[in-house]
Amino acid sequence: SDLIIDAKDLVKHYPIRGGVLRGIKGWVKALDGVSFNLYKGETLGIVGESGCGKSTLGRMLMRLEEPTSGSLLFDGVDMYAQSNSGMRHMRRDIQMVFQDPYTSLNPRKTVGDIVAEPFEIHPDAVPKGTNIRTRVKELMELVGLSPDMTNRYPHQFSGGQRQRIGIARGIALNPKVLVCDEPVSALDVSVQAQVVNLMEKLQDELGLAYVFIAHDLSVVRHISDRVGVMYLGKMVELGDEEQIYERPTHPYTQALLSAVPVPDPTKRFEREQIVLTGDVPSPANPPSGCRFHTRCWRAQERCETEEPLLIEHADGAGEHPSACHFAEPKTDVV
Ligand code: SF4
Ligand code: MG
């Protein structure tokens, strides 16, 4: 089948410790029951404000965090049941690109050594008939960098070039999935598009699937086949590009979209701006019922007590999942 990741009910709670005895005072509910699928060769965008759990989710897909509960099948194999050696084997197929190209590359290593890092753990991943040096040069070319630059150090490169180096390292083992945690957030807007274009090119050439994490819906729009919107540890809406951007049904998605600047100034006045009031509540103490109810302009009494499930609702041209009791399409925010 085309299914590569089948994540069910992923939960991650962190203990809050304090007091003289460092006892557990409470729990941060960073991720609180998230389910989704990822298919071969597709891009799933994951979007939400900081504290929504998206980075925790990314780390759990790599098993850099152990789940509190939930399951993840990767290519049909139960990831969280793997021993260390089983996990090492699986990591060949699921690699990560980190947010900040300024801190995720070791400044004392040459970029050639950085790109070759994955081969230290997986020497057998060097393709037959070649060697690490040749493979590193190939990878540099694949990401649009001169293969003559392998002896330079990260500080000799721009932010965009450094993220290309991080991507070269991420694809070195020829993974099936690349988890990208805000890969362009630290870059200038003009450079962001170049890196996103490179990622699309690599996806076409290598058949990679991406989980592309971002805090801004506009960044993931063009690269994503589907988008999941997260709020306070929950996924609140999940749909394909058209469903999320043209027929959003969740009030939170609608608010995020209304905040995206419109390139066409004549359209600015036709569009309704939804201003969210209040801060994101603490994930240590999420609101009862619908977690969004403290900031939602559509909230009713029921929302304070009854938690909405992520289920399909009519969206005007079909249906897609949205976790709102009153989900309905709103097109004047897009
Ligand atoms: Fe708003 Fe209620 Fe829908 Fe939650 S369930 S998003 S509070 S209308
Ligand atoms: Mg694509």
UniProtKB/TrEMBL annotation:
<dbReference type="GO" id="GO:0005524">
    <property type="term" value="F:ATP binding"/>
</dbReference>
<dbReference type="InterPro" id="IPR003439">
    <property type="entry name" value="ABC_transporter-like_ATP-bd"/>
</dbReference>
<feature type="domain" description="ABC transporter">
    <location>
        <begin position="5"/>
        <end position="257"/>
    </location>
</feature>
<protein>
    <submittedName>
        <fullName>Oligopeptide transport system ATP-binding protein</fullName>
    </submittedName>
</protein>
<dbReference type="InterPro" id="IPR003593">
    <property type="entry name" value="AAA+_ATPase"/>
</dbReference>
<dbReference type="GO" id="GO:0016887">
    <property type="term" value="F:ATP hydrolysis activity"/>
</dbReference>
<dbReference type="InterPro" id="IPR027417">
    <property type="entry name" value="P-loop_NTPase"/>
</dbReference>
<comment type="similarity">
    <text>Belongs to the ABC transporter superfamily.</text>
</comment>
<keyword id="KW-0067">ATP-binding</keyword>
<dbReference type="Pfam" id="PF00005">
    <property type="entry name" value="ABC_tran"/>
</dbReference>
<dbReference type="InterPro" id="IPR017871">
    <property type="entry name" value="ABC_transporter-like_CS"/>
</dbReference>
<dbReference type="InterPro" id="IPR013563">
    <property type="entry name" value="Oligopep_ABC_C"/>
</dbReference>
<keyword id="KW-0813">Transport</keyword>
<dbReference type="GO" id="GO:0015833">
    <property type="term" value="P:peptide transport"/>
</dbReference>
<dbReference type="InterPro" id="IPR050319">
    <property type="entry name" value="ABC_transp_ATP-bind"/>
</dbReference>
<dbReference type="GO" id="GO:0055085">
    <property type="term" value="P:transmembrane transport"/>
</dbReference>
<dbReference type="Pfam" id="PF08352">
    <property type="entry name" value="oligo_HPY"/>
</dbReference>
<keyword id="KW-0547">Nucleotide-binding</keyword>
